[in-house]
Amino acid sequence: MTQSPHHERTTIRRALAALAGAVMLLLAFGAPQVSAAPQGFTAQAVAAGLTTSEATALQAEVDRYLAKTGGTQIAPNVIDLGRGNGVQVAVPGERQPRDLTHGRGAFIPGCVGGADPDYFCAYENSSYTGSHVYLHGCPGGVAIPFGSGGSWDNYLNNSVKVRMYDNFSTLIYTTPNSHSRDATADWTPIYRVQGCF
């Protein structure tokens, strides 16, 4: 038995109404969440070889440092603080920051494992390891986002010193002339470093 054109249109309308109702229910109660592809710097970190969970953990760490230091994230694990200063963030659980930029220039090798000439490097962990803040040359000061422990390496040129201040801008410590270093420093009272003196 064949259906009339009117009956076929009615059947199509009912099917469309049922589909529209299902869509409305999904919108009202929430559709199942489909994980989106990583975005921005997280996607770059995944492209550089990190797992999605490592890249997500790294971004959370970068966000934590951004909140403490300010600046602008310019790579998956690099924060530009301006005037030649910055922060390089280690993937959580790793000893040193790594180049996640495929050599495109955002990663600064000046502090990996110790300071290169014309750098002051403040490390999160002892023995010049972990995430680090760097001064390059003598362009002003930067916030120190670490809570305790740590180390520093002053290899700024011209035998200069670096001053370390608390959160009230009270001088706490002045490094010896460069090249000087401390493999077991304590960042607890330090909120900011300033070179060059």
Which keywords apply here?
alpha+beta; 197 residues; 3 helices; four-stranded antiparallel sheet; globular; single chain; seven-stranded antiparallel sheet
- Percentage beta strand: 25-35%
Structural class: alpha+beta
The strands making up the biggest β-sheet line up spatially as 1-2-3-5-4-7-10
Rg, Å, rounded? 26 Å
The gross shape turns out to be globular
Describe the structure.
This protein is an alpha+beta fold and 197 residues long. Helix content is 26%, strand content 26%. The protein contains three helices and eleven strands, in the order H-H-H-E-E-E-E-E-E-E-E-E-E-E. The chain has helices at residues 5-29, 40-47, 52-69; strands at 72-75, 78-82, 85-88, 119-125, 129-136, 140-143, 151-154, 162-165, 171-174, 180-182, 192-195. A hairpin with a 3-residue loop joins strand 4 (119-125) and strand 5. The longest helix is centred in the first third of the chain and has 25 residues, at 5-29. It starts with a helix and ends with a strand.
Helices and strands in order:
Elements: H1 5-29, H2 40-47, H3 52-69, E1 72-75, E2 78-82, E3 85-88, E4 119-125, E5 129-136, E6 140-143, E7 151-154, E8 162-165, E9 171-174, E10 180-182, E11 192-195
Antiparallel strand pairs: 1-2, 2-3, 3-5, 4-5, 4-7, 6-11, 7-10, 8-9, 8-11
Helix pairs in contact: 2-3
